[in-house]
Each structure stands twice: as structure tokens, then as C-alpha cells.
């Protein structure tokens, strides 16, 4: 755990340069706009330890799988988020000596991520080995308004000399993925060009053939006036630059504004890329840096209006929750249903593909409440469009009749994961996709989604489960053999309660939706039946039989659902009794020791109880929580938020807060010692859930939002905005009670502690404590 980030309610601030923190900060200070993003690499050359990262959403490369022991059914490729052309570079020479913070004395270093207005700022003074002193200020952002563009304003002032400053803005397409399986480079150059004030390079991915054109246009200001210096064009393989030599006077600043555009063939015809790129660059350069930045601030102001959480009385918690919301908005804007939310977003390469069950289980609730409904719909459509590949995937594993198994990790619908215990066994992901459909419709009442898309996905998933179960003669029940639950510290187990529960629920929900659509839109239902060859009578009667006869492990003595067969045979030593030196287990213990232990990586039975909370009485929830929580090591960042929500539900406010703290500052404090690989973007949505569903106790009940809030002891108040069926509400929880402001023109009716409250349009009311 580190604590070098300064607390500020709207900013992330690092003061002083410590190279040991550099890669962590490169992750934390990352920028993005849903279409592209990058780690906070320095503009000038840095020869120290760094992880270069520039990413273009949806552009990937299928890296050939590398495993020790090949198993039939493994995918041949792992589609990876691609490190793409580095457009940040502004190289600096001071009388021929390179400015490189790894080799300088660095004074007054400060990095600041302004979350309110969406930009990254850096300032420092540096003294080179030859004694040259300069002051630098750099500001950059990825435009939220014009999402194929970005801009950098870089100012350098010689402090103790007059001489030649050489500024070389560049674009470097010769980049690699650190996680490349065979040390291969994934990009080929298509073409490039340089002009006196800029240049571009077009790169094409090997195999997938994506083309990305990255261009720059720059202007230079010296002593307050724009100058047109002579620039030397430099072209090397996969690299373009313009070298500008300027005579600088001591104390006088030189600024370069570098406008950048990044266009991909996903959104433009390859033959039109260069024309589009040039006109985009001209457009933003004509607009100017300050106007672009002002538009950026206005765009973020609008975003914050919808999704800010304000915490009074705890600046560190305030900073943390805003950081989570900020990063989620930088990662996914919902504009494009071909894109999704990678566990690391645009902050690192780890986890390869972009889509895990994290999206459906964790991110959907966040976007449902904080963004237009079309944003979540696009996340659902992403899966709908990949249904064909999910059916192919299931067929390749021996399933029939249109059964679908969605991939554990994917970019375009193809399975990428290649560890058998996860690829073939962690099939609960299929259930999360059905659950997200249910969650979306419960929240939005968009029943048309079910008729148009949802039911087709549900039937394909139900078909999978109905084939995946086995009939046990011995038990005279259906069993679910050879699975891995969310707790990846158990593999190849039988009757994982969560998976079986989810499977049966999927079939139940499918039947419910069939009934609904049959009545509401018979024609569409019949068209679907024909399209997918659905034999309703035969197939649903099998579902019903499975639902009725599904086996679930239960321990009578303790009154808990059994995580899986044999769980209680394990030595039951609680996490609190584990020596601290043994943690985290995944770094300290051999894998076989972990597998034999009772320790739970992340919410498993409790994930199911969270999903299906309404089906259980409070005593059942408490018994399961009290049993499983002490055995959970939370070695996935997705875990503590579920525990926080359940602890809040059980009235254990202190523990709810404790779990919340574990998720909220996970990256800012580098809690798990792994932030240098990138931020835990998907679990950030879990942090939001811990506040809104945990402390705010928000649920959807009978088509209404319901709140059962409590105020964490340390806080004076907290408030959050949620959108729901045309209304925008601000809920503020303080010692006075619960204040509800209706910020929209539509009347809203909500439940607070079970009692209905009607808030007129643009009105507010207080439910006293
Ligand atoms: C978790 C998975 C999760 C993945 C990506 C793993 O550590 O166990 O549940 O999907 O990370 O976030």
C-alpha cells in the first residue's frame, strides 16, 4: 500500500518525482474518452522504467495462444488490446543535451489529473547533468467532445541559460505489447508523410487488418507570438517527426501545442483515412487548444451533473469515488455498441481482451443509473451481436441446437481465454449476461428490448444450461459437474451453488419472458421461434423439469448454501487466523495449496445472494454472510463491493464501510501492489455500487426506486444522482434524513425506508431521520 497521492476533492495530485512510483502514476493519471486512451507517459524522452501505452478502442490483435499443454477446445488466439502509435512524444534537446527526467535532478515535480475538467497537467524544474536548468509545464487531454482527437500544450523555459532548444514532436508507430506471446510486433506500416507543421503515419494490424491513422499538427509560440520556424522533417521506419531548433533566451518561454487525431478503419473507409485525418487536424487546430479545453470542461460538467457523488466530511473518500467515476467515464461512453469495458480500460494491457463478465455483473448497474439508457442498451447489444459466435463456441465444445456459451474473455465474440479451468468451466459468465438483460429491463421497463433482442439471447443461454446439467441417478436430481465458480481458488468442482442457482434462474426467467412476449407481441415471438427453430413445448418442459429437480448443496447444521460439494471437508481455518506473511495467497502459496484450502478469492455464494436477494429472508442472508465472509480473501478487486452491499443490508454499517474502503482507493493507494499494470476499471463500478446500493440501499422494487440508506459514521453527508425512467434524482443522506431533489421535469415516486414519496418535477422533499 502506498500513500503518495495528495488528497483533493477534484484532483489527483502527485508532488515530487519518485521513479519507483512512475509506472503506478502512469496508470493512475491515464486519460481516455471512450474511443482512445493512454497511460500518463511523459512527453519528453524518459529512459527510466516505464510502461508505454496508447490504445484505440476496438482495435485488437489475435496473438497466437501459448500454453504448456494444449487441450482440445482451446482457442488458437488471444485477442489483445493493442498498444498503438505513441502520439505523446515531444522530445527536447537543450544545447544538444537530452531532457530526460531519469537523468536529471528533478525539482518541484507535480502531476495533476483534473477530474472536474478532464485534463492532465504536469510541471517540474529539471537540472541536466551538464547543469542546464529548465522549467516545464505540460497539459493534455483526450477530447470527450471530438473523440478522435487530443491536444497537448507543452511549455519550456530555460532558467539559467540562453541557447538552442530543439523540440521534436513525433509519432512513433514502432511499439510493442509487453504481453506479446512471441515477442512479435503487431503493426505494419502502410504509409506516412511529414509537413512543415506536422505529419502522420498509417499503421495496419497484422492478421486483423485494422488501419489506424495517427496525425499531428503543431504550432509554436515564442515570447507570446506564434512563429513559423524551419522544421526538419524526419522519417524513419514507422516513425515521423519534425525537428525544430529555436534560439531561446533565459527566462523566456517557448510553447508548442500539438494537436493529435487518431482515426481507425473501424469508423472510416481505409481509403478515406488520410483525407479525414487531415481535415480533423485542420479543424481542431483552427479551434485552438483553449477552446478545445473549454469544451472539454463543459462536457465533463454535464457528465458530473448526472453522475457525481458528493461526500461531505471525508476528502479522501470524496477523491476516491470521483476517481472511480472519472475513470469509468473515460473508458466507456456508450456511443458505440461494438465497444466494451476492459478490466484495465485504457490504462494497461493486462487481461488482454476487452470484455469479461465484469461488464454485466458490475458495470451495468453503474451505467444504468448514471447515463442515458442507450448506454446500457449498447452494452447489451454488444452481446446480442456476438450471439452467433457464442453459439459457434458452444457447438465447438459439443453443445447443440443453438445453445450459446459466451466467452470468458473476448473482443469480437470469439473466446480468447486459454486455461481450461476457466475457459471451459467458468461458465457462470453466461448467467451474468442473462442477468444483465433482466437488470436492464427491470430498471428501464424497456420490454421491447426483450422482444427484439433479449429473448433470443435468453433462449440460447437456457439451451446451454439445459444441456450442461447431468441427471444423477444416485440423487435423482440434476447436477452441475466440473465447473469453476467466481471463486477461482476452486476448480473443477461439482455443484457450485452459484452456477447451479444462476442456471436454473436463467431457465425460469426465459420461460417468464416467453410468456410475456407471446402475449405482448405474438408476431415477433413467432418470427423468433421460426428463426431459431424453437420447440417451445419440448424445450420449456425440460427447463421446468431441471428447475424443479436441480440439486443444491445445503448444510443443515450451519444453515448455509454449500459453495460446492465437499467444501466442508476442507480445513476450516478463518482468514483472520492466517499469518499476515501468507497474504496475498496468490503470491505466497503454491496453486495446489490454494486449491485445497477453504479460502475464497471473491464473492461466490454471496454473489448469488446479492443477485437474488429478494428470494431470501434476512436470517438466511446473515447466516451465509457470517459463514462465507470470514473465509474470503478478496484477492479479486471485484469482491469487497458485494460484501459491502450485503453488510449494509444486514445493518453492519462499520463493516460495510470497511469493505468500501478496500475498493474505493484500491488504485490510488496501490492496495494490491499491481496498479502499475493498469487500474482496476471494472471494479470501480463496484465501488459506485458500494455507495449507492450499499450505503444508499438503492434497489428497484415493483418498478420504483427504493432507498434504505444509512450514513457512514465518518461522513457528514453523501449524495448521488441517479436517472430512472425519465427522472433525474439527487438523493442526499445526512443526519437530518434523506433529501430527494427531482432535477427533471417528470414527477417521480420513490420508496424511502419502505414508504412511498412522490417528488414533483423540479421539486424536493426531506424525509426526516
Ligand atoms: C476475477 C474474474 C474477473 C477477472 C477480470 C479475475 O481476477 O477472478 O472474476 O472477471 O479478474 O477482472
TrEMBL record:
Give GO terms for biological process: carbohydrate metabolic process
Glycoside hydrolase family 65 N-terminal domain residues: 13-265
* Family matches, as InterPro entries: 6-hairpin_glycosidase_sf, 6hp_glycosidase-like_sf, Gal_mutarotase_sf_dom, GH65_N, Glyco_hydro_65_C, Glyco_hydro_65_M, Glyco_hydro_65_N, Malt_Pase/Glycosyl_Hdrlase
The entry lists its GO molecular-function terms as: carbohydrate binding; glycosyltransferase activity; hydrolase activity, hydrolyzing O-glycosyl compounds
Q: Could you say which residues bind substrate here? A: 357-358, 601-602
- In this chain the Glycoside hydrolase family 65 C-terminal domain maps to 698-758
Q: Which family does it belong to?
A: Belongs to the glycosyl hydrolase 65 family.
Name of the protein? Maltose phosphorylase
**Originating organism:** Mucilaginibacter pineti
Q: What is the lineage of its organism?
A: Bacteria, Pseudomonadati, Bacteroidota, Sphingobacteriia, Sphingobacteriales
